[in-house]
Structure formats: C-alpha cells, structure tokens
Design brief:
The structure is a single chain. This protein has a domain of 44 residues. By secondary structure, it is mainly alpha-helical. The longest helix is centred in the middle third of the chain and has 39 residues. The chain contains three helices and no strands. The protein is elongated. The mean pLDDT is 74. Keywords: Signal. This is DUF4148 domain-containing protein.
Amino acid sequence: MHKCSRQWGAALLISAMPLAVQAQGVAAGAPVQSQPDMTPASASKADSKAQKQALKAQCKAERKQARQVRNAELQNLQRNGYGPQAAPDQYPENLLNAERKSAPQKTAPAVPASSN
C-alpha cells in the first residue's frame, strides 16, 4: 500500500471516530452526553479539510521529488550512451553499458577541500 494511501486511511479513521462513538451510544440506548470541550462541527470539518490539504501537499512533494530523482538518473544514463530510439535492436546491451559507465560516477567519493 502506498504511504499516502495509509495516511489518508488514518486521517479518515480519526475523523470518523467521534461519529462511531456517538453511533454506538445511540444504538445501545444510552443517552449521548455532549462534552463541553468538544469543538463545533464546523471547526472539526475545517480541521479535517486542513489535514487533507496538508496530506495532499505532502504526497505531491514526495511525487515531485521521486520524479526529479528518476529524471536525473535517466539523464545520467543518456549522457553515458543510453538512447532507446537510437538502436532498438541493441536495447538491453545499450542500457547495461550506460549503467556500467554511470556506476563509477555515482560511487565516486567526494574530494574534500585541502586545508593547507
């Protein structure tokens, strides 16, 4: 399950919790007691809407970051000779060669600046 889907599910459960508790009290025949510290329904809706918007923004940022990483990897492969349209009959070899060429670039340690 996707991370954002789990968060949406959790937000939905949290927002539905007061309704479930109230429904259980009504079904059992017990009178529902209102608590003075509960927020009004409009404030609750506004909070849940704000939570949904924040969650949506977070998921959008995660997708954008993943897309940037994927595009950077593809550009790196293309700089090292990968091009699916260039030679379709040599596709697997072309990709593997580009990956081998780009591998040393990824694992090269950063050179520290000399302090002399």
